Amino acid sequence: xxxxxxSRSPMSVALRVxxxxxxxxxxxxxxxxxxxxxxxxxxxWFASIQQPNAWTGASPGYFDFARIWDGHWYFIIAATGYPSxxxxxxxxxxxxxxxxxxxxxxxxxxxxxxxxxxxxxxxxFVSVAFALGAALVFYRLMAKFxxxxxxxxxxxxFCVAPVSPILQVAYAESMHAFLLMLALLLLVExxxxxLIPVIVVMAFTRPSGLAFALTLLLxxxxxxxxxxxxxxPFPWRERILACAAGLVSAASGVAWLVIAGIVTGRPMxxxxxxxxxxxxxxxxxxxxxxxxxxxxAEWWASWWGIPPWLLIVALVLLLVLVGAALFLPAMRRLGVxxxxxxxxxxxxxxxxxxxxxxxLRLLLPLFPALGxxxxxxxxxxxxxxxxxxxxxxxxxxxxxxxxxxxxxxxP
Length: 411
Hints:
This protein is mostly helical. It has one domain. It has 19 helices and no strands. The longest helix has 29 residues. The N and C termini lie far apart (52 Å). Its main location: endoplasmic reticulum.
């Protein structure tokens, strides 16, 4: 036994030395590749038992399975663009249309959609490329606050997160994750001029311009406060550029609403189109900020047969816990700018989003918080959370992506 152990030692030492000498980007690429093998296996298994549905026949191939749900809307946009008039329901309301989806992702896909190319193949290629970019930039961002091992483990958690299969299907989430990580890295590095074009493209990928504008408002206020106390200088050039980035972000956040209104001739075209999706739950109504979660509490309480106040109390308690978590040592270690984003995006969701089965997907931009989750170094903890996350992928694909009959749980 001793001789066997000694014979293995040189190889073990050699592997450990090679790992330590390998560049950080290679480690991230390996983590990403392994995670994609796992997620692909999960998606393929569910595709093998998929029954005929609105998008595919029984047991579709991977690329057909990867373009269902909103992927079909992105296909329509990539193929034909946006309609000049809005579809109307029989009772006079605006119906569902491509205007609910931002143009940046399908425009990138269209660039590679050569004659004869399959949309599913191209869309998956684009999504996976952006997902790898997001993982690489995420490591760079985390490495500014965490030791290399913890930064890499944060990338592991991002790559195996329960909603991570969305990073390799025909959805815009991976492109938005890449742009968000790049924006946060530039913000942390105070590179405001480079931040501006990233913000614009990001806002036309997923709705995020208003949330990032609030992040910049908090950032500028904090730097001004620190400058007044002599802790961190805030030169006038940086003040002007940071404020300009905030204004651009705010303008980008409403630009798509304006564009949709001009093209269709209906000023509230975008909002009315978005509200069409929640009409199946609560009917057609106007968007009143910070009320959707309470409306949802009433609907879900009715569906579950429980008093609505129970869900409202649970929501308030959850918000209190999340707010308190921002001040934990592991979260404080990530710096103020990442926490500003977590607060800003959370407030944005509370203001406009009606919670339903898409909630987990829309929480994806909060993944920088995984840096705090990655802090503990216990091997048992790390292995356990990775296993739980992978099981979470199975649960998410079953609940949201896999189509079960007349499915009302879109991802």
